[in-house]
Amino acid sequence: MTDTPATRLAALGITLPVAAPPAANYVPAVAIDGLLHISGQIPFDDAGALIKGRLGDGVSVAEGAEAARRCAIGLIAQMQAALGDLGRVRRIVKLGVFVASAPDFTDQPEVGNGASNLMVEIFGEAGRHARSAVGVYALPRGVAVEIDAIIAIRD
After folding, report:
1. FRET pair for 48, CA 20 to 30 Å: which of 18, 66, 73, 129?
2. CA 73 to CA 138: how far, in whole Å?
3. Is 31 helix (H, G, I), strand (E, B) or coil?
C-alpha cells in the first residue's frame, strides 16, 4: 500500500467528517495562485458537539490540544472538499491558532501543537509549517480553539 495522506489518516483511525459549511457570509476555502486559504475551523467532539471553554479557566492544556487536533481534522476535511485529493497538498504553509484564554494563560503554543503534530503525522515533512498561536478572550460559539490555514497546492 502506498504511503499517502489518506493511508496515514486510515492508519490513525481518523475518518474525515463532511467539511463544515460556512456559518456566515464567507466561503470555507479559496484557492488562488497555488495557495489554498482555509477559513477558521472550530472543534467538534465525536458526538458532533462543540468543544467549548477557556484555557486556564476550566479547560486544561491537554483538552485544548485535543480541541486543536479536532480543528486540524476539520482543516483536512476542507482540503479534501476543495481539492478532491489530499495528494494535491504540497505543503502546509501556515496555521493560525486562536486559543480562548484566561488572562494569565500563556501555554497557547502547547495547545497549538495538537494541530501541528497531526499535520506532520498526516503530511510528513510537507506538514511542517509556520504558525501563530495567540490567546484571545472569546471565540465564536464559545469554542476553546479556532484554527485557519494556508496550504500550498499542486495543480
Report:
1. 129
2. 22
3. strand
Q: What distance lies between CA 12 and its chain's CA centroid?
A: 16
| pTM exceeds 0.85 for this model | yes
Residue 145's domain is classified under what CATH number? 3.30.1330.40
Q: Report yes or no on 104 lying in a domain.
A: yes
Q: What is the pLDDT of residues 96-128, one digit of tens each?
A: 999 999 999 999 999 999 999 999 999 999 999
- How far apart are the two ends of the chain, measured CA to CA in Å? 24
Kindly state the helix (H) or strand (E) to which residue 130 belongs, with its residue range: strand 130-136
Is 110 part of any domain?
yes
How far is residue 150 from each of residues 20, 25, 31, 76, measured CA to CA in Å?
17, 20, 10, 12
pLDDT tens track for 38-53: 999 999 999 999 999 9
Tell me if 56 sits within 8 A of 104, measured CB to CB: yes
| Amino acid residing at 44 | F
- The number of domains in the chain is 1
Which residue stretches of the chain are H helix?
5-11, 61-83, 108-123
What domain range includes position 43? Answer: 39-153
Cα distances (angstroms) measured from residue 22 to each of 10, 59, 91, 100: 26, 26, 24, 21
